What does this fold into?
Amino acid sequence: MRVGEQVRHAIAEILAQGSVHDADLEGHIITVPEVRMSPDLKLATIYVMPLGGRDTELVIAALDRNKKFLRGEVARRVNLKFAPDLRFRADERFDEAERIEKLLRTPAVQKDLEQDPDSDREEEQ
It folds into this structure.
């Protein structure tokens, strides 16, 4: 298993167990879709998304405040020479997917999609 995936599992488990005691995290279900490791494995960029996308900035600030505790927990659970520094970022993929979905529903794109692809072939011949 890749190191980023091990760190992702560790962080997700810590958050699911409610091990981080912070009022801003209570009542939030936080998904950890991805962790990107630097080539030297000394920095882990952890992408998080609170369920429903609410209070994202608040949750990331709380995770940053508890970075030292989380780093220690990751070090205990993932066997690495050095515990990586942790950096938390909002996972923007949901926003990007929604933006693309809206784009696909615009009248101009719908018109292009509705054109018969075979009609272009007939003109070429």
About this structure: The two ends are 54 Å apart (CA to CA). Helices lie at 3-16, 56-65, 67-77, 93-104, 107-114, 117-124.
